[in-house]
Amino acid sequence: MSLSVGIVGLPNVGKSTLFNALVARRLAETAPRPFTTIEPHEAVVAVPDENLEKLSGLINPETTVPATMTFIDIAGLVKGAHKGEGLGNQFLAKIREVDAVVHVVRVFKDEAVAHVQGKIEPKEDIEIVNLELELGEITGKPVIYVFNCSENELGTFKLEGYPGINISAKLEEEMIDFSPEERKEYLKQLGIGESGLERLIKKAYEILNLITFYTIKGGKEVHAWSLKNGKTAFDAAAEVHTDFAKNFIKAEVINVDELLSAGGWKEAREKGRVRLEGKDYVVNNRDVIEFKIGA
C-alpha cells in the first residue's frame, strides 16, 4: 500500500533537516535561507516494528522486509501562498497529493537562521500555514504537529490546543551516523527512551488508520505489510500479489504473539492455534497470514 506523508511548514523551520533524519541520509540540502527546497524530495521510510524483529529472529530468514511509508519534503509556505506567493501554488498542489501532513513548527532559537516572520511565535506560525492550506482548499487531511525544539526543550515544550510531538531535528540528523547501540545509549543519556523520529513514524502510521500483517515465504522471507484497518483477507492477499487475490482459496491466520510463543508455524499448527479464514475475514493488526491459492 503506497501512502505518502507531506512535510510542510513555514520556511526555515527545519523541514529538510527532519527529512534527512527520517531517511538517515543527507539527501535534501539544508541551509539558513528561505526556499532551500524547491523540488520536493521523496523517500521510502521503514516503519519501526519490534514484532517484525522478533519474527525474523524466530524464522531466521534470508530477507526481512519492513512495512514502509513515503515521506515528501515540501517547500516552505508563506503568507499569500494560495495566491502564488513564493511558488505557493506549486507547493500547495503537491500537498493535495499526499495522504497526511506533518506540520513542522519552529520552537528553537538560532540567530544564524532567520525566521521568515522575524520572531519565534509557534501558534502564529501554525495559524499562518493552516490559513493558507484552508484558502488553498486543502482540508480534512490528518495532521501531526511536530515542534522542532532545542535539546533542552524536548521534554518541556507544550502549546495549548495543539498536541504534537517534540523533536530536535538537528539532534536527530546528527545521529544519522550513529550505530543503533550508540543512538540508544545517547538517547538514554538525554533521558529519552525512544527517538522522536520513531514516534513520528508510528504516529503517521496511526493517523493513516493502518495496521500491519505479516507473511512468511518458505522460511526465506519475512515481510511486514501495511493495510487499512477494517480490510479483509482478500484485500490483504491483493497487497501481496494480485494473483493471490484472483486465485484466493483460504487463509491460515495466527496472531504474531501466539506464533512466537508456539515457537514456529509447524508447532503452532500442531497445537491448533492456526485458524482457517475465508476471503471476508477482517484482518487484525499483527496477524501472520499464509495465503492458500489455486492454479
Polypeptide structure, described:
The protein is α/β, with parallel strands linked by helices and 295 residues long. It has eleven helices and twelve strands. It is globular, with a radius of gyration of 22 Å.
Explain the layout of strands and helices.
Layout: E1 4-8, H1 15-23, E2 41-46, H2 50-59, E3 63-65, E4 68-73, H3 88-97, E5 100-106, H4 122-135, E6 143-148, E7 164-167, H5 169-174, H6 180-189, H7 196-207, E8 210-217, E9 221-228, H8 233-240, H9 242-246, E10 248-255, H10 256-262, H11 265-270, E11 275-277, E12 287-293
Parallel strand pairs: 1-4, 1-5, 3-9, 5-6, 6-7, 8-12
Antiparallel strand pairs: 2-4, 8-9, 10-11, 10-12
Helix pairs in contact: 2-10
Offer a concise description of the structure.
The protein has helices spanning 15-23, 50-59, 88-97, 122-135, 169-174, 180-189, 196-207, 233-240, 242-246, 256-262, 265-270; strands at 4-8, 41-46, 63-65, 68-73, 100-106, 143-148, 164-167, 210-217, 221-228, 248-255, 275-277, 287-293.
State the strand order across the main sheet.
2-4-1-5-6-7
Give me the strand/helix succession: EHEHEEHEHEEHHHEEHHEHHEE
Low-confidence stretches: 26-39
- Per DSSP, the total helix count is 11
Shape: globular
Sheet having the most strands? 6 strands, mixed
Distance between the termini: 25 Å
How many strands in all? Answer: 12
Radius of gyration: 22 Å
Structural class: alpha/beta
Indicate the mean pLDDT: 87
Proportion of β residues?
A: 15-25%
Residues in helix, %: 25-40%
What are the salient characteristics of this protein?
295 residues; 11 helices; alpha/beta; globular; 6-stranded mixed beta sheet
